């Protein structure tokens, strides 16, 4: 094995007096801690946490199927109880310190009641009171009402009319599954079957939650908002569809069900699951149950295993269900952080093992759903999960391809991965949308009228180009510096000029939030050799500096997704991940000698965990650091406080040493 070539830090660097003695020690502690978390085969996979919705749905899934694991159920219930905010609103939020989310609270309450919690218990009384104060379960979102309908807690008219015959619509129709995002597509197809056949949960203990309704659910008439002309139009179509549904020919319905079944079965993805994410997996499992698949049928049994693999069991007797797993993403960033963290053989070998683990996961054969809008493009992307052949993403692909190039450039190994890097770059360029930007999974997924259908009250049906992904792809192409990519780069830069916020910041679709987005864009612009003194770029740099807290760190609340006036703000609380992103953004544009960067580095040194044996050498903050869907679903990447701060410190040391 030829070790990766690492940049060596000189023995002496020109550093501020309060930083110099501590920087190398902090990097060494973080390096050892991160190396200690690497799997034997070379990869990393950190816990991937979300709000209690998914853990609650896992419990309710077991009751739907009448396949209840009592031990696991109690562990999940303990986790849900711990997350209730009895100290504030009494419900369950979507992220740390967030406001109550009605739908999450309804599902959490229902799951706890199904697990055996008495409705007279103080925590259940408190939750019930706050649900009723917010209008009751009838006001919960579409997905929650569909679940309640399957458990016979609301009539099916409380859920949107989504007949499985949608599968038979032509591509030119206003709605087609190819026109929505991959996560919506993979979730909806099995859900069409559940809704059309009006699935009924087995619910062996006959647990209900009628006490969560302000008025009896069968008497409720306002399950859908009526504001806006487009919404009213779709509601009319919804009523027309329900009226004529009984007249649907049985043969046509059977044909549509078969087509839905034939769509999701080839995409089941083994024990990594349909779409690699929880909602499609659970819908597919319940759809197969409804269609009569035996428990030991290979497709059904494998789907259940995929769901079980999402469970994290903790030493404190709790368990939670992850929305998916993040090994490619975690491994790429961890390797990037370690790339210059040490010149020793152990670190070099660890990075090499990581890259050798990553490289073969590139999808070079399967043309996934992305090919609908890029039919002549050869595959070449990496997915987020261990396996997800139909759904590679541009973010992971740009990061891994760039990492492989950086790590092996100028070494005897450079040619080993050249073809893979070229295939990745070709795929990225071919996935550029017409407006010049890049989305996460698809090209030109911009049919915005779809976000107004009754089913789409979460507003997350599409995968349009975004600033952060565009910045990451720009960075990947900038690292490679291929002559043939110049036009794609120019178009992307023009896109980023257009979507910049008036104050210079950039929205972060896949990380919290404007600090993440602004870092992603600045890094990309720097790597494609844009003139960083241009006023529009200086505005972004100045915005990042202006968001620095008095203690030297940065932080941003997920509230900024609802309230843009809070962008770059965390009510004065600094976090390691936000501080690292801000520092990486500033250092990318040459600000490593600035006072802002010096103070940020000092903050990271002081925030490093030393006393906690489980976190020693790393960083920690309880806040959620990314949206799954802004305003609807949030995530906590536990790896973000392990590798991003380390990368910021090593990058700082490298730049200071280079200038010295």
What is the compact description of this entry?
With 660 residues, this protein is mainly α.
| Overall CATH class of one domain | Mainly Alpha
Shape: globular
**Count of individual beta strands:** 5
End-to-end separation: 33 Å
Largest beta-sheet characterization:
3 strands, antiparallel
Radius of gyration computed on alpha carbons: 25 Å
CATH arch. level architecture of one domain: Alpha/alpha barrel
Fraction of helical residues: 40-55%
Order of helices and strands: HEHHHHHHHHHHEEHHHHHHHHHHEEH
Mean pLDDT over all positions: 93
* Portion in strands: under 5%
The CATH topology of one domain is given as Glycosyltransferase
Poorly predicted segments: 1-13
- Structural class, from secondary structure content? mainly alpha
Count of helical stretches: 22
- How are the strands of the largest sheet arranged? 1-5-4
What does this structure look like?
By secondary structure, the chain is mainly alpha-helical. Among the domains are: 49-321, Glycosyltransferase (Alpha/alpha barrel), CATH 1.50.10; 364-447 and 454-499, Glycosyltransferase (Alpha/alpha barrel). The chain is 46% helix and 3% strand. The protein is built from 22 helices and five strands. The protein has helices spanning 20-36, 53-65, 70-83, 102-114, 122-133, 142-150, 182-196, 229-244, 250-264, 278-290, 298-308, 327-338, 345-358, 394-408, 418-430, 467-480, 486-499, 514-527, 535-546, 576-588, 595-607, 640-659, and strands spanning 48-50, 311-313, 319-321, 626-629, 633-637. The protein has a three-stranded antiparallel beta sheet with strand order 1-5-4, with no helix packed on it. Strands 2-3 form a two-stranded antiparallel ribbon. Helix 14 (394-408) packs antiparallel against helix 15 (418-430), helix 14 (394-408) packs parallel to helix 16 and helix 18 packs parallel to helix 20 (576-588). The protein is globular. Residues 1-13 have low confidence and may be disordered.
């Amino acid at each position: 094995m030829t070790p990766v070539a690492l940049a060596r830090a000189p023995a002496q660097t020109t550093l501020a007096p309060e930083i110099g003695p501590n920087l190398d020690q902090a990097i060494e502690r973080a390096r050892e801690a991160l190396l200690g978390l690497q799997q034997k085969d070379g990869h990393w996979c950190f816990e991937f946490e979300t709000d209690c919705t998914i853990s609650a749905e896992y419990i309710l899934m077991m009751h739907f199927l009448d396949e209840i694991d009592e031990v696991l159920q109690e562990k999940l219930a303990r986790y849900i109880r711990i997350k209730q905010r009895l100290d504030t609103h009494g419900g369950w939020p979507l992220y740390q310190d967030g406001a109550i989310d009605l739908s999450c609270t309804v599902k959490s309450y229902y799951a706890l009641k199904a697990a055996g919690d008495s409705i007279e218990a103080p925590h259940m009384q408190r939750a019930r009171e706050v649900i009723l104060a917010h209008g009751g379960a009838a006001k919960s979102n579409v997905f929650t009402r569909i679940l309640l309908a399957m458990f016979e807690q609301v009539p099916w008219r409380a859920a949107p009319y989504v007949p499985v015959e949608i599968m038979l619509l032509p591509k030119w129709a206003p709605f087609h599954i190819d026109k929505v995002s991959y996560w919506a597509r993979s979730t909806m197809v099995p859900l069409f079957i559940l809704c059309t056949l009006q699935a009924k949960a087995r619910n062996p203990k006959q647990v209900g939650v009628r006490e969560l309704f302000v008025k009896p659910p069968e008497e409720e008439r306002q399950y859908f908002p009526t504001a806006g002309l487009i919404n009213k139009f779709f509601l009319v179509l919804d009523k027309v569809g329900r009226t004529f549904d009984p007249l649907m020919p049985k043969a046509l319905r059977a044909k549509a069900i078969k087509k839905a079944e034939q769509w999701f079965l080839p995409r089941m993805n083994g024990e990594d699951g349909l779409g690699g994410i929880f909602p499609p997996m659970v819908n597919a499992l319940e759809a197969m149950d409804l269609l009569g698949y035996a428990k030991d049928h290979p497709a059904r049994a494998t789907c259940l295993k995929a769901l079980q693999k999402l469970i994290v069991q903790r030493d404190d007797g709790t368990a939670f269900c992850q929305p998916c797993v993040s090994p490619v993403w975690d491994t790429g960033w961890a390797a990037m952080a370690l790339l210059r963290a040490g010149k020793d053989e152990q670190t070099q070998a660890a990075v090499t093992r990581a890259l050798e683990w990553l490289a073969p996961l590139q999808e070079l054969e399967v043309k996934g759903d992305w090919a609908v809008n890029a039919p002549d493009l050869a595959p070449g992307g990496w997915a987020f999960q261990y396996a997800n052949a139909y759904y590679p993403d541009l973010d992971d692909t740009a990061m891994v391809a760039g990492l492989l190039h950086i790590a092996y450039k100028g070494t005897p190994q450079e040619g080993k991965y050249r073809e893979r890097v070229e295939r990745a770059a070709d795929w990225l360029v071919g996935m550029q949308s017409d407006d010049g930007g890049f989305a996460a999974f698809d090209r030109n997924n911009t049919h915005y009228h779809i976000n107004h259908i009754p089913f789409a009250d979460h507003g997350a049906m599409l995968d349009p180009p975004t600033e952060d992904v565009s910045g990451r792809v720009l960075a990947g192409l900038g690292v490679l510096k291929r002559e043939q990519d110049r036009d794609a780069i120019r178009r992307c830069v023009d896109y980023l000029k257009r979507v910049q916020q008036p104050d210079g910041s950039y929205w972060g679709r896949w990380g919290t939030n404007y600090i993440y987005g602004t870092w992603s864009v600045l890094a990309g612009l720097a790597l494609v050799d844009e003139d960083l003194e241009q006023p529009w770029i200086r505005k972004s740099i100045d915005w990042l500096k202006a968001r620095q807290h008095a203690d030297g760190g940065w932080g941003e609340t997920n509230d900024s997704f609802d309230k843009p006036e809070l962008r770059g703000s965390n009510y004065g609380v600094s976090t390691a991940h936000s501080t690292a992103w801000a520092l990486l953004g500033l250092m990318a544009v040459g600000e490593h000698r600035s006072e802002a960067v010096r103070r940020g580095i000092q903050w990271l040194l002081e925030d490093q965990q030393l006393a906690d044996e489980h976190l020693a050498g790393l960083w920690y903050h309880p806040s959620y650091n990314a949206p799954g869907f802004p305003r609807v679903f949030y995530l906590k990447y536990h790896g973000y406080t392990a590798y991003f701060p380390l990368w910021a410190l090593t990058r700082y040391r490298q730049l200071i040493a280079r200038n010295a």
